[in-house]
């Protein structure tokens, strides 16, 4: 069986943007292995159409690739793809997409754990707006919803995060 030719520019795009895609996927899934699967699946879906994607996006295919990644992420949830549970305690991955746990401040670690508790729509809106630094309009386009939905999803997410016990700050410690 002969391997199909790689479309021009695809390898360069993956080399340049792969880490950022993996970070976004990790923020969405909260799990390194699922993040890798999500990026790989999204890129596999984009690959056959790469020539058109690269041509139609003026050399900036990030929005299209993110859209495929988000669509795949939501499809996995609908199909209950994530219903696998390990039967034993697994070791922590050593090459996680996120920073090494020992290098992360306690607050940031707590923020990532709290982010993982949000419903997937709210989490996707927050990740796109505040981690990917997209505008409300760009996030709405990627998620296929209105700008108002992005605003309300983010507002609800922040209300939840404000009351998360992981993120509550001891008032006495603030005034010392």
Automatic annotation (TrEMBL):
It comes from the Bacteria. Residues 109-161 form the RNA polymerase sigma factor 70 region 4 type domain. InterPro entries: RNA_pol_sigma-70-like, RNA_pol_sigma-70_dom, RNA_pol_sigma-E_actinobac, RNA_pol_sigma70_r2, RNA_pol_sigma70_r4_t2, RNA_pol_sigma_r2, RNA_pol_sigma_r3/r4-like, WH-like_DNA-bd_sf. SUPFAM superfamilies: Sigma2 domain of RNA polymerase sigma factors (SSF88946), Sigma3 and sigma4 domains of RNA polymerase sigma factors (SSF88659). Keywords: DNA-binding, Sigma factor, Transcription, Transcription regulation. The keyword Transcription applies. GO terms for molecular function: DNA binding; sigma factor activity. GO terms for biological process: DNA-templated transcription initiation. The keyword Transcription applies. Residues 19-81 form the RNA polymerase sigma-70 region domain. Belongs to the sigma-70 factor family. ECF subfamily. This is RNA polymerase sigma-70 factor, sigma-E family. It comes from Pedococcus dokdonensis.
């Amino acid at each position: 069986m002969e391997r199909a030719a790689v479309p021009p520019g695809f390898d360069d795009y993956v080399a340049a943007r792969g880490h950022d895609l993996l970070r976004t996927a990790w923020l969405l899934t909260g799990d390194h292995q699922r993040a890798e699967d999500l990026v790989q699946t999204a890129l596999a879906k984009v690959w056959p159409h790469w020539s058109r994607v690269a041509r139609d996006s003026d050399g900036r295919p990030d929005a299209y690739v993110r859209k495929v990644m988000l669509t795949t992420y939501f499809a996995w949830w609908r199909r209950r793809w994530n219903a696998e549970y390990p039967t034993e305690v697994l070791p922590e991955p050593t090459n996680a997409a996120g920073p090494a746990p020992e290098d992360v401040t306690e607050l940031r670690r707590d923020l990532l754990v709290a982010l993982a508790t949000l419903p997937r729509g709210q989490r996707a809106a927050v990740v796109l707006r505040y981690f990917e630094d997209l505008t409300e309009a760009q996030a709405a386009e990627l998620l296929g919803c209105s700008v108002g939905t992005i605003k309300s999803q983010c507002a609800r997410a922040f209300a939840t995060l404000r009351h998360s016990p992981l993120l509550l700050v001891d008032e006495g410690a603030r005034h010392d």
